[in-house]
Amino acid sequence: MLENASLYEAIFVARQPVFHADETVWGYELLFRSGEENVANIIDDVQATSSVIVDGLTMALVGMSDKAKVLINFPEKMLVEDAGFALPKETCIIEVLENVSPSKKVLSAIRRLKDAGYAIAVDDYFGQPQLKPFLDLADIIKIDILELGSDPERIAGAVKSIPDNGSKLLGEKVEDNRTFGILKDMGFSLFQGFFFSKPEIIPGKKLTTNEMTKLQLLSELAKLDFEPKRLAEILQSDPNLAYRLFRYINSVGFGLQEKVTSLKRAIDMMGMVQAKQWLRTVIMADLNPAPKAGELAYMSVHRAKFLESICMQSNLKQCAPETLFITGLFSLLDAMLGVDMDTILCTLPLDDSVIQALTGEGRVHDLLALANSYEHGYWADTTRRLKSLDLDTVKADLLYAQSRNWAQKMLGFSKTEGP
Questions:
Q1: What angle do the packed helices 362-376 and 379-388 form, to 10 degrees?
Q2: How far, in Å, CA of 131 to CA of 141, rounded?
Q3: Residue of higher predicted confidence among 160 and 260
Q4: Host domain of residue 117
Q5: Domain count, the chain
Q6: How many angstroms separate the CA atoms of 159 and 139, rounded?
Q7: How far apart are CA 368 and CA 306, in angstroms?
Q8: Mean predicted confidence (pLDDT) in 242-246
């Protein structure tokens, strides 16, 4: 049964992380999807941005660090009507879309926002003369790296055309670590794209004992014959895990009148399935302490719950929720550990369907590709994949949003900061 559907059915918002040069999270851009038929193009961009302001921002802020910034796209009419003033200036960045014309009304509206203390970002710049009137007002200039073919010379040319007024350079659509390194050397300070989720394999790197122990524990939790008493043994052997479980179970979300201080009672209250999922989430969050790994852990847990939910709420044949959860959870291990997936899989006795999915084959991999399309905001590809899998778009959007909130809740008690 779909719970709290009314919270999500009116709007669907995805978010993409933006990183500092040290790969810590600076903030997120919100990406709006306005319904089943609206894919790449937004028919009513005013309605789209209004929905983001009214509903999407509240949804997206759940689980975010208090220091995280939020980029929100603004079409021309919303700028002229001063809709940006509805947003908190401490958190939100007004992003001027590339199709906005620099008329006197628009430039005056942007100056009003700047005078009031709002930061302004210019979207999709790659040297277009028509966007140059915005550059003097911009605090952040987003350069479309893919539009420039990821060519260092063309990127440098676009950068030279920008006035030296102290604005920050944000490289968007950064898809690999090589480009990320080039942009850092050019003076870019912010980076958006999925370079962080692609594995940067370190030649000769071996998994540490600590990493191997955690991977083996994840593999053990994936076994169908996993015994409940083993879960208690794992928690009893690690005081840190036990403490975090008590903190989680005693959260307001469970509505308990008395504090739970017994591991057995905590596991009984959560149920075996949820207790296993909680422990997996904690292990994933602890697997790599690097800053960007926190975002990868969040994405992995989100994928896992989304794929499991799709399986449970759809008519897909030969669909095992546990298999899909494990597939999503393990799908970014290579990026988290800097080791190729084949090496990781050699150490884990996983089900064949999971191994096939993680190496790019089979029906389960098709579902993994669907999750990837959602994450990128590739709405046309998302719609195509949903149709090929005979999945309802509205239901899938709802499950994706619910899975995000589930992941945020789980990771909120296993990390010092939200994803």
A1: 150
A2: 11
A3: 160
A4: 5-197
A5: 2
A6: 14
A7: 10
A8: 81
